[in-house]
Amino acid sequence: MNIKDIRVQLETVLTDVLGTYHLANGATTPAIAVRAAGESLPPGTTVTGLEVVIVRDPEPVLVPQYRQQTAGDRWTLFLVDWDGNTPLQTVAGRLLWSYPGSNAVLINVPRGVGPGAQMRVDLQTNPAT
Q1: Residue spans of alpha helices (H) in the chain
Q2: At what angle do helices 3-13 and 88-98 cross, to 10 degrees?
Q3: What strands, in cross-sheet order, belong to the sheet with 20-22?
Q4: Could you read off the pLDDT of 5-41 as tens digits, one per residue?
Q5: Cα 99 to Cα 123: distance, rounded to the nearest angstrom
Q6: What is the pLDDT of residue 124?
Q7: 86-123 confidence digits (pLDDT tens)
Q8: N or C: more exposed end of the chain, with fewer CB within 10 A?
Q9: pTM (2 decimals)?
Q10: Pick the residue with more confidence: 63 or 78?
Q11: CATH number of the CATH domain containing 40
């Protein structure tokens, strides 16, 4: 599965809970982005609500299938609740149900520093058939 496909799928699965990016030019767009590690938002962009950040490069994982083994992908994404109002466990549960074999871990965020809450989700996708 390629990055475009995973982004479209995630936006579809989470469409009703995604926050909003407010761009420097005044436009708004759903708060879901593909970024490389350490890459930040463009200057002048702000976020409200739930932001989903997909790390650009997936990690390959072996998927046993009968006697043959093939590789699938593990995509790392971060659920970032900027307002402190999104139930991240519910959002993560939706992703875990949609992508069997995935897992989620809550990331501790000190109060008053950065987002209200954050979670890392390792999304397991099946190999191409």
Answers
A1: 3-13, 88-98
A2: 120
A3: 28-30, 20-22, 46-48
A4: 999 999 999 999 999 999 999 999 999 999 987 888 9
A5: 6
A6: 85
A7: 999 999 999 999 988 899 999 988 877 778 889 999 99
A8: C
A9: 0.87
A10: 78
A11: 3.30.2000
Q: Hunting for tokens 């409200």 — which residue is that?
A: 48
Which amino acid appears at position 74 of this protein?
R
Total number of domains constituting the chain: 1
For 68, the domain range is: 3-125
- CB of 89 closer than 8 Å to CB of 41: no
Q: Is the dihedral of CA 7, 9, 10, 15 positive or negative?
A: positive
Sequential DSSP letters for 20-43:
EEE-TTS-EEESEEEE-TT--PPT
**Encoded amino acid at 16, one letter:** D
Length in residues, the chain? 129
Return the SS3 of 125.
strand
